[in-house]
Structures are given as C-alpha cells and as structure tokens.
Amino acid sequence: MNLQFGIITISDRSASGERSDASGPAIMELVRAKGWEVAAGIIIPDDYAAIRDILIEWAEREDIDVLLTTGGTGFARRDNTPEATCSVIERFAPGLVEAMRAESAKKTSYAMLSRAVAGIRRNTLIVNLPGSPKGAVENLQVILPVLEHAVKLLRDEDAGH
C-alpha cells in the first residue's frame, strides 16, 4: 500500500534559519525507506495559529494520508504543537502516543515529559513526534507497523477486522 505523508517541522530557530532542520529530513528518509511518499514538507515557527492552520489545510488535501509533526511537544512556553493539534482533530488516537511514550521510556525517563497527541481529522491521521531527530525517528518506528492498517480503516478499505 502506498501511503502519502505530510511532514511539518515546528521550530522557531529552524523557521528563522538560525538552525538547520535535522528532524524533518530524518523522518522523510525513514518514510521513503518504507517505500512511501512524502507529498509535502514544511518548516514553521512554534506559533499556535500557524500550526493549527497548516494542520487544517493539509488534512483537507487528498494527497496526504498521514501528517507527522516534529517539535513543540515539550514543556517550554513556546511548545504549542499539542494544543494546536487538539484544536483540529475530530477523534483522538491515544494508543499511538501511549505506545510511543512506553517504548521511549525504556530508553530515557524524559519520555514522560512528552505532551504529544495523535488523532484524526477527516481521513487524515495526525501524529506529533519529538523535535530531536533521534527521538522523532525512534517514535515513528514504534508506530510504523500499524500505519497501513490505520489508513485502510480511514479509507473504509478494511471491513474484515
């Protein structure tokens, strides 16, 4: 099954050019290694309205099945990703972030500080990943095995479950 991804890096410093984005490209590499496609990628600042608006716009696109965000899930004052995500999703998918946090906690106690959320808007799955390249890739690897089935369910293509 060919999945189409949108990847949004959320970072004030990367958006301003102060720091290069390493997480977005790392996620793209992993997605492409699975044989899937990246339909869109962008770097935006840690701004609630900007995050909300791009999530809504991209979730409405027909060429994106899974929207991955990286960054803005911690405790810092500018970490707005979970709140913006919650404002646009129609149904939560807590099992995905529970699995990511549980697996991450085996490697670092800092996993408990993740405020990431996941959910569905229309037929698009939205998942928040950490901002570090290592954390983003490790968390994505946890949920990779279920993404095709999740998208089939969202497309009403798997009635036999």
Give a short overview:
The chain has 161 residues and is α/β, with parallel strands linked by helices. It is 43% helix and 20% strand.
Walk me through this protein's architecture:
This protein has one domain: 3-Layer(aba) Sandwich (Molybdenum Cofactor Biosythetic Enzyme, Chain A). The chain has 161 residues and is of the alpha/beta class. Helix 3 packs across helix 4 (81-88) and helix 5 packs antiparallel against helix 6 (133-154). Strand 5 (118-121) and strand 6 (124-129) form a beta hairpin. It contains 6 helices and 6 strands, in the order βααβαβαβαββα. 43% of the residues lie in helices and 20% in strands.
Keywords for this entry:
161 residues; alpha/beta; Molybdenum Cofactor Biosythetic Enzyme, Chain A; 6-stranded mixed beta sheet; 6 helices; 6 strands
Number of structural domains: 1
End-to-end CA span = 17 Å
Q: What order do the SSEs take from the amino end to the carboxyl end, as H and E?
A: EHHEHEHEHEEH
CATH uppermost class: Alpha Beta
Quote the beta fraction: 15-25%
Largest beta-sheet details:
6 strands, mixed
Summarize the amount of helix as a percent range. 40-55%
Strand count: 6
CATH architecture designation: 3-Layer(aba) Sandwich
Structural class: alpha/beta
The gross shape turns out to be globular
User: Would you tell me the overall average pLDDT?
Assistant: 96
Which blocks of ≥5 consecutive residues have pLDDT under 50?
Answer: none
Overall radius of gyration: 14 Å
With strands numbered from the N-terminus, the spatial order across the biggest sheet is 2-1-3-6-5-4
What is the fold named in CATH at topology level?
Answer: Molybdenum Cofactor Biosythetic Enzyme, Chain A
CATH superfamily: MoaB/Mog-like domain
Helix tally?
6
